[in-house]
Amino acid sequence: MTPQATTPAYRRLSVEERRSQLLAAALSLFAHRAPEDVSLDDVAEAAGVSRPLVYRYFPGGKQQLYEAALGSAAEELRQCFDETRQGPPLSRLSRVLDRYLTFVDEHDTGFSALLQGGSVVETSRTTAIVDGVRRAAAEHIYSHLGISDPGPRLRMTVRMWITAVEAASLIWLDEDKQPPVDELRDWLVEQFVAVLTVTAARDPQTAALVGALGEDDRD
Description:
The protein has helices at residues 15-32, 40-47, 51-57, 62-79, 89-106, 108-116, 124-144, 152-174, 181-200, 204-218. By secondary structure, the protein is an all-alpha fold.
């Protein structure tokens, strides 16, 4: 007798596993479509569950689901900046940008909708989530530069550069991801050194930092 194919046993997901499944489905949709173009039915279909089940986990509906998905994506983006303290600071920055630009590439449409603020479901909470990522990125940069108490000019310079990275990423997506990502990464590192050099002319703390970066580059 030919053995009959067996049907895999159904495994009931835990609450956390189910929630993670729904968030993963939502993130996949938000990554390729603007948030206002994604419905709860779309999320349910992508996750292979019913619409009432989505509501059970996110009774606040699409807004709650979007904010939860955004928080999950923000955490993933924060992890891009979690770099080991090995090698010169600018080499570490290059590795951080590699991960950041990979995230941008994989979440292109959702990344654009998020940073451009074009979503109809944007709220003060979603804005705070995005700003939290920016602040976390700045803190990581200070840490890798060996700066425990950045002055106002250095803080402003780093935050301005982070904003420039976001703008460059959006333009890169609009330009069909040209130039090649490695060229974009190197250019952004060069931009970082350039803005620090400008600030160094007016700020002793930044001047000392630029000098230290130059010594690391020569080693």
